[in-house]
Each structure stands twice: as structure tokens, then as C-alpha cells.
Amino acid sequence: MENEISSIKPLRAKNLPIVAFIGRPSVGKSTIFNRILRKARTITDQSMGVTRDRIMEDFIWNGVDFTLMDTGGIAPEASTIQSQVSLQSEMAIGIADVIVFMVDAQIGPTKEDIYVARMLRKSSKKVILVANKADNRDWTDFNFNQLGFGDPFTVSATSGRNLAELLDLIVENVGQAVVEDMQGQETEEELPPRRIAIAGRPNVGKSSLLNAFLGEKRTTVSNVPGTTRDAVDTLIEYDGTRYILVDTAGIKKRYKYDEQLDYVTIKRSEQAIHRSDLVILVIDGSFGATSDDQQLARYIADEGKACVVVVNKIDLVEDKKALEDNLSHQLRFIDYAKRVNVSALTGKNITKIFPHIIAALDNYNDRITTGKLNRWLAQVTDKQPPNVHKGKVLKIYYVTQVTTRPPTFQFFVNDVEAASESYMRFLENNLREEFGLEGTPVRFSRRQH
User: Fold this and answer.
1) Separation in Å, CA 189 to CA 66, 185, 192, 219
2) Which CATH number fits domain 17-177: 2.60.40.10, 3.40.50.150, 3.40.50.300, 1.10.287.130?
3) What ranges make up the beta strands (E) of 254-319?
4) What is the topology classification, in CATH, of domain 194-364?
5) H or E stretch including 198?
6) pLDDT at 218
7) What is the pTM of this model?
């Protein structure tokens, strides 16, 4: 791929063994995953094949740490999108240490189960056969032994029956398994990874961008809007620093919610942005920024997040001047964000994104000394004194930075009402220019002294 970022390395967190839930669609993988974690981490409903990406959560049972992985269903005969979901599950098999192979105790082995079993036998991984929905039905009516993993361990994800015993069995199989390529990477002195949310409207190329970063199909990519339904975390390392990339579902205006699943998906994406340090806002350059993009930009600004705008599909844009005008208007709430024009499909300019991410995060966490701030203030107010506002003359005695993430500054003044919004905006622009605060919002407060 053109301009591939070779210095980005996918990581597995904390050297933990991975336990993956594998099976055909709708056997209850996400339900049991959520029941164990006691929270709705993945999106579940009664529709077939709702989980589309690999979802991972760290877990401790009886003093043993491991990572649980929920996956989409594997189906031998499937639509294009389901085949990509199946590929995700096959990749999960490749990195898992222990596999929980789930089947349905209500209907017995199917041809899809036999297909999955054949795949698992070739993997040579530790496999626990689990028959879900074993509330009333006697599973012995069915020949699960034909799958090649002995008698199934029976559970009920909905009632919680035998889940504690299943976890005991998982711990037995986990044993001392660790990930060799993560040995010694994490120490007590290491800072926690910085969280980066990849956000945007449905089908603008968020997952394609993540896959371009990683050089692998970490998330499901297709031309169907709404392919990513969960916020999917990926731990990476870039130039010696760890980051968590969160690929979010597409965010649309609330009046466009047409089903409960859509509402839950979008709330999950908003929560991912809320927890992030920086947001990569992906715009479809071939279409331009829309009112949905504008609303999302406002949400990012309101949340006080650092931001880099990635304009994808730039190779399809003919009138770049019109696009620039469109972006400047629709994304004015995050005019502090650097824009990078890319093609996630070809890899064009992908390498230019991370340097701007690093700069924005550094500025987001930056602290400017009070001495520097007040020398700047004296210079700028001498050059451009404040105008009379509401019949009052503003006097600014001094300024200090009160917090970071984002940088927040408090101005001590003679009269709060004398400080006009236009003059404070002038000070903000000048402050950004003086201290190079690219990529981060800046907040001002005024206090009467």
C-alpha cells in the first residue's frame, strides 16, 4: 500500500492470554460475553449477526487475568458483509490462546457448526465446546461429538446457568499462556495509552482508515452504511508511544434514529468520543461536509477534545476550492483542527496523519507558565487595546493557566461585562499563534478582580 505506516505496531494489552468466543451467527456469543462482564459492552438484539467486529475486554477470574474476545458469527455461505465478518472471526482464531466454541443446544449441530469445527481442528488451539440455551432441552438428543471436541459444556447465557463453572474451565485451559511478543513491553512506569476516537458519518471510510494504519483488516469494511456497530478498541504503538484507536459507528442526527439498535450504536460512539483524548473526524471529500458533520464537529468542540480532520477519498474530488470553502463553513466549530487530505483506499498521505495527532495531543496536555503568559498579554494588549464595550473599558490585570486537557486560561479583569466576545476571540487567536496551539481547543474564563 502506498505510504503505509510501517512504524505503527498493533499490540495486545498487558501480555494477557486471549479467550475468544467463536461460532456461527446468533448462538449467543455476545449475550454470554456481556453476561460475564455484567454490562452491555457489545450491541445485542434478536436480529441475526449484530456483532460485526472483534470486541475485547480484560477480565479476572479466581486471580487469573485474561482477555475476553467477542466476535461476529462464521458462516460458510454468506453475503459479502457476512463473509468479512467471518474473516474477522477467522483472524480472531489466529490470535486467540483459548477458544470457546459455542453451539445451540436447542437445535443441535448444523452444517455451519461443522464448518466452524473443521476450521478449529486445523488451528490446533485449545477449544472448549459450549452448548448455549440449555435451559430445558436435553442436549443428549443431539450428536455433538461429531464436531470433534467431546461432549459440550452446557450453559444458559440468559439465565446465567453454569457461567461460573465455565469460567473455572476457561481458567484451567488458560494456564500459563502469555503473548511472547509483548514480554517486558509494559512496566509500572509506563503512562496509560492515549485514546484516539475515529469518528464520522456512516460509510465515510473510518474502518478503512484504521485498517490503513494497521495494515490488516482489524474492522469490517464494506460499502454498506453502518458496517461498524460497536466502538472497537485497538492498542497500537507509534514511535515508542502507545495509543488506543477506537473505531466508532457512524453518528447521525438524533431525528434520524429509526430503530433502537441505531440509537444504542450512536450513544456508544458518543461515549467513545467522551472518553477519548483526541478525535479523528473523517469527512467524505467526494461528498463534502454535511449538517451531520457540522453537528459532530460541535459535539467534539463541546466535549473539549483535541482533533484532526481527515478528508478521505480526496482522489475523487474535482473542485478542491469548493471543498475547502465547504469545510471551513461546516467545521467552523473545530477551526483549530488540522486537516489532512487522504485516500484510505490507496494509502495516499496516510503517513501525514500521525505527526499532526502527536502535535495536537502535546498541545492538549501543554502548560504555559504564568510568566510567559503575562509577557504575551502585555505585548498583545499594548498592540491592540480592548475597545469600549457596553460603556465600560476593559482592564486585564493578569492571566494564568488553570488546567490542561484542554488548556484553560483565567483572565483577571476589572469588570467581566467589559470583556467582549470579539476581543476574547482576538486574544484566543493571538494566543494560538504565539504558542503554536494547533489541534487543541482553548478555553477562556474571566474573573473580576
Assistant:
1) 22, 11, 9, 31
2) 3.40.50.300
3) 278-284, 306-312
4) Rossmann fold (3.40.50)
5) strand 194-200
6) 44
7) 0.63
